[in-house]
Amino acid sequence: MTKYGRANKYGEDDSSFAVFRLHVPRANLTTSAERTGARLVNLWERNKKGGMVLQNSFIPHLPARLSRSACLRDCTALFCSAWNEYRRGKPVETLLDTPLYGKALRSLQHAFQGDEVYTVETLGAMVLLERAYTTFGNLTPGSVKGHHRAIETVLRKKPPLNFEDDLEVALAFENSNILHSASLTGSSNYISDDRWRELLTKVTLDSMAEEEMQPFGDESLYTIDLLNTLIESAHWISQLRANPHESRDLRDMASKKLRAHSTRMESMCLECTTKAFNMGSLREVPDEDSITGFRYESTTVKFAQVYASMLNFQIILCRMVYELEVIDGNAGEDEYAAYRAGCTQLWNFVPYLSRVDTIAALHMIGVILPSLEAANDIEMEYIVDECYKADEYSKRLPRDRETLLAKSILLAKSRTGRL
Question: Which residues pair with 349 in a beta bridge?
């Protein structure tokens, strides 16, 4: 059950979020679902101020649903086990080395073979298994793609979204990034579906009611239209790179649209930054060890992540505008300078990586890495070193620096139509 209201704020390194009254199982825990639910509640309550709040807003809605689905119960049990061992500092190579992993896989396979494939509970189980693997598992090249393809398939094929179901809404929103990435590489544009646009609007409006999100203001709804533009523009740039002389009209239209969005996004970033400084949500502190000479400090991990994502939108837009200049045969010096300035501002978050828990740091690393394309050798060495320091325990990043750089630049190119 969810209680909506003003968000609670915590200490400087903590998070804030809407208040949840979790479905707490009865004191006499007689079933496996009740015991698993109680363990999840306990872990969430003890860790809800850190990085686990990022992309996991569905977790508080899970306990009430465990009795409905064996695969959701078993995947939750696995997730709780891995999370608990992770908190205790056990070697990451062993966190999923448990019979619970095989049991969770068998439960999901059983659900896939029956009529439960497109239920909310099965989707929740799939997402928890993906989170357990990407956060706590022994990653191998390409292994995450299988999880993402399966989640994408269920999200696209399941019945229409039920906006009265808090779990379904949270699961869909927290995994919309998978659909966005797929839309960039050839799948149908999910934003063109009215159901997804309605979902993003609903969640964005709910989020803006939280005190910590106030600096972003009403302009936050604009980012929904921007997501659609980023997908369309990536395809336009890909088309123009393949046939640069094919359509002058397309180049002009794309350039005009992207420049308008870039100008608006720049204004939004400036306004949000000013509000955040005034409210104390964000501070820019001199730091002689930082490659930029400054570091950002944020009151919550959620605000830091949303703010960094906003800067990332501006970086992508600037890079797209620059690419169109290059396609047109121009040097694009001013456009590249704007792109690099955005990356430099984002690098103020690099010192942040050592000041938050590992999970929060890994989320921020995911935002920062594509900006390495703009870095010189000294900047690149500093940023990569700091990323590896933050990843020392979790070992989520490729151990080989060249592989990490190649993947980072590949991601940057995929977002801007350059593959």
Answer: none
